[in-house]
Amino acid sequence: MAEAATLPAKPSEADEARPFAVYFHWPFCLSKCPYCDFNSHVRMGGIDEARFLAAYRREIETTAARIGPRTVSTVFFGGGTPSLMTPATVAGLLDTVARHWTVASDVEISLEANPTSVEADRFRGYRTAGVNRVSLGVQALDDESLVALGRRHTADEALAAIATARKIFDRYSFDLIYARPGQSVAAWTVELSRAIGEAAEHLSLYQLTIEPDTPFYLLEEAGKLQIPGEIAARHLFDVTQDICREAGLPAYEVSNHAKPGAECRHNLVYWRYGEYAGFGAGAHGRLDIGDRRIATATEKSPEAWLAMVEETGHGLVVDETVTRPEQADEFLLMGLRLAEGIDPKRFERIAGRPLDPVRVSELAALGFVATTAAGRLRVTAAGFPVLDSVVADLAG
Fold this sequence. Notes:
Blueprint: H1 13-17, E1 20-26, H2 49-67, E2 71-79, H3 87-100, E3 102-113, H4 120-129, E4 133-139, H5 143-148, H6 155-168, E5 171-178, H7 185-198, E6 202-207, H8 215-221, H9 230-246, E7 251-253, E8 256-258, H10 265-271, E9 275-279, E10 284-289, E11 292-298, H11 302-312, E12 316-321, H12 324-335, H13 344-351, H14 357-365, E13 369-371, E14 377-379, H15 387-395
Parallel strand pairs: 1-2, 1-9, 2-3, 3-4, 4-5, 5-6
Antiparallel strand pairs: 6-8, 7-8, 10-11, 11-12, 13-14
Helix pairs in contact: 2-3, 3-4, 7-9, 12-13, 12-15
C-alpha cells in the first residue's frame, strides 16, 4: 500500500477525550449470512418491538443514573439489521437519549441498513426521527457474489438503495467485501471503481475473513471453500488502497476510506479510545466513572436480555474495571488502526510507562512504524498488513 497523501486533522488530547457516543444494537436479521459471526438472530415469529423499545429505554435510564451528565456527540444503530426497526422505534430511542443527556447540536446519528429493507418512505421516517447518516450493507456489486455471500438483494437493488439514500441523507456510506473466493484483481478493480462512482464521501472495504462457528468456516474445513491466499489477498489490499487514494478516498483506518473530514465520527470515538455506552443484546461499552474505566457487555440472547432488563433495569453480564495495563493494550489496539496514529504521551499517561524506545526503533527500522512531525506514532503502509504483530510487539 502506498503512503496516504492526505491524513485526517490531528486531534488534540482534549478532543480525543471529550466525545461521548451511544450505541444501540438491534440483534435481529431476516437471515443469517454464512460469513457473519456478529450477535444477530432470525425470529420467524415476529418481534414485540414495543416491548424491546421499553427495555432499551429502561437500560438508558439505568445507565444515565449511574454515570451522570454527558454530551452525546454520536449515536449509532448497528446490528443485526437496524433498518428492520420502524422509524417510530428509532425516534423513541433518540427521544430517550435526549431526555437523559445533552445532545450536541452537530450530533452524528448513523443507522445501518440492508438494501432488502430500504424503502423511501422508511428512510424519510428515519430522517424525520433524527438520523442524518446511513450505512448500507451492500457487500458486492455483482449478483453471483451476492448469492455466494448469502445476501438477499441483487446488485440492482443495492444500487437503487444507494440512490435512495443519496436523495434523503446528506451523508451515506456502504460496505463491500473483497478477497472473495475466485476474485481476481481485475474484477475487483472494476467493481471498486464502480463503487467509488456511487459513493459520496465514505466506503468501508473489508477483506473476507473466515470466522469460527460460521457456515463458511465449516465449508473451508471441508475443503469446499477457498479464499485468496496471503499473497493474493495482500495484492488485493494494495490495489484497494491505491485506487481509493487516487480517487480522493484515502484510508483513515485499516478498512475505512473517506474524503478528509468525512470520517465516521462514531467509529472514531472507538478508535481514539473515547467513552461510549452500549444498549441492547450483545452491546459493549467503555464508561468513565470517577477515575475508573469500566468495561461493559450485555447478555447476547435477545430474549434473555429483555427479561434481565425488565427485572433489574439492565442486561449487563460484564461490568468490570479495566486495569491500566489493559487500557494501554486497548489504546494501542484501537489507535494504531488509524492512519493518524496515537499520541505516545497519552499512552504514557494511560499505562504509567512510556513505549519501549528500543521496540519502536526496531519497528521503525523495519519500516512498520513512523513518527510524525507532531510526535504521533503511526503504522506505515508496510505495517498495516501485519498490524496485529506490530501492536503485540509494542504492547509486550
